[in-house]
Amino acid sequence: MQEDEVQRGQSTRFQLLNYFVWISLAGIVIASTVLGILYHYSSIKNLERVGESNNVSLATVLANNIWPRHLSNEAHTGTAGSQTGLFYKSIKDDIESLTRSTSIVKIKIFGKKGDLLFSTNNSKRQGTEKKSNEYAKNALEGHVVSRMKQRKVGQARLWLLSTYVPVYQQNKKENGVVGVIEIYSDITDLYAQVISDRNLIAGITFLSLFLIYAFHFIFVRRVNNNINFHFEQKKKDEDRIRHLAYHDGLTGLPNREMFYYRLATGISQAKRKESLIAILFLDLDRFKGINDNFGHTTGDALLIEVGSKLSECIRETDIVARQGGDEFTILLDGFSHVDEVDLVCKRIIDALKNPMELNGHKIQTSVSIGVTIYPFDDQDMETLLKNADDAMYAAKETGRNKYLFFSSSLRRSNAEKAELERKLHSALENNEYILEYQPIVDLRTSSIFGVEALLRWQDPESGIIPPARFIPILEESGFMSIVGEWVLRTACMKAREWQDIGYAPMAMAVNISMVQFKQINFVETVENALLKSGLAPEYLKLEITESMLMDQSDVSIRKLDAIRDLGVFIEADDFGTGYSSLSYLKKMPVDVLKIDRSFITDVHKSSDSAAIVTAIIALAFSLKLTVIAEGVEQIEELRYLSALNCNLIQGFFFSKPVGEEALLGMLQNPTYFIDRIKMHDNHCVESAS
User: Fold this and answer.
1) Distance between CA 656 and CA 224 in Å, rounded?
2) CATH of 256-406 among 3.30.70.270, 3.40.50.261, 3.40.250.10, 3.30.70.980
3) Which of helix, strand or coil describes residue 542?
């Protein structure tokens, strides 16, 4: 509809220019014609007046010379019966002598009663015109009457002026009219001159008006072109604004507003046709790591390429839209079976499985897809979108690079998640959060080197909630920064408190989430926790995940440097699991490498794990970094690590995370960890025997 309006607008502009051309030309022609007609009429009238005046003057001369001599009796009586050839000849001779060298063609003389007394035309005999000449009658009443007529004389056509002049007795009007003289004068040359002048004036007028028109046409066309240019520019700007209002500026795909409109329209049509609609919610896996490592330019190029590949996976009647960030939505309609949606999801995952060459980098990405079906899952647009979003997050939590259809069980899971989120917001005020501590043992002294503080939630209704269930919810809700600050502050206070009651100082390791680390005042938060607790900075270790350390932005580096300046140590947690594990060690201020548990498990059996662990330990020693093995559960793993001089051990082999009371019990027993090793040794001997 908008395109039709634009076309109508363009057509209107074109017609307006034509109107100007044709109306102006028509005006010129009409004006020239009217002026020519007016000039012609005026000139003819003027010609008639001049000719009439000349004819009247000549008639007066004729009347003064001929009438007394030849026609006084005939005019008075009004008869011509006594006229003879001699009479006719004598009058004609007098007339010819008086009209010699004039343009007079013919002369007639009428009596008092209107009958013809004389005519220079021999074909007209006296008395033949009786009462038929109305012009002569008008002249007998005292009026001078003239008329122009065209006559053919030989091969020529002449314009004649015929004037009927009343003749008064003794040239006095009061004596009455005694006759009429009709004089035919040849005005052909004068008439031709009038026509020539008329045509010349009409031509000059037309040419002048046309020159004025041409000037105005050039001016109007320039103004019209300028107006059209600005109109087209405005139209392009409006089209661009309209396009941007419903399309993503980066990828060119439809945006959220356009998707919502198409979805609402699709649902309305599906209701009438009783057909199915599928909504796919897509999120790129590990996009932030790609963005941070390769830059936003590469990240933007990836989004553009993904948008293009997604468009190739669907039909022209379907729509793929960018919701924002690395999230996309797809609307599929006109299908009859859910298996068709299943095929589209597989096609999408297959299209993104190969690495993409972007800005000189090979980028490997994948996508998690959530699917919901109208009307099976719901009929409300907002609910359907939420269902697809929930299914997408569930797919991401189950391993990424897969798709998942929404189900009623997922709805129950989401309801439980929402209930947990509601409770989590009040858990801090209700003192439901607690800390447990897992020892880090130094094999060289068989004593505690330090502990890692781990957050636990003790729900009054459900008891202890596993961290895997509530920590992601805290991070998604943005509440993690507040809870994380409580953890940091409480851990520092406990570490100082234990020192104050006589226990040997030991390191307190605290996990820091991405949400916390991104806080502008994070360094101040760490400093305040140390000041309020009185804990010396060297006993605090902040565990930061490898993905956080890979963010080598100036802001992140400045934060870590500021923390190091406080005297606090930085641990790289889960080392070896990141996208690029070694690149950040050159720039980031790291003190400790903690080997991820995935490499420690069965390290004595797996040659691949053994090679990775050996390389990490060698790397840490070469960079003069402390190395900690996390997740040690078997005596064989412990012995293998000990043989590699990795002497700081954390894991269930020594202790699971415990409360404060149990930890202090371990500290009070100097042989606790030696006894654990001996117990496992004895168990191995008994098993062997």
Assistant:
1) 85
2) 3.30.70.270
3) strand
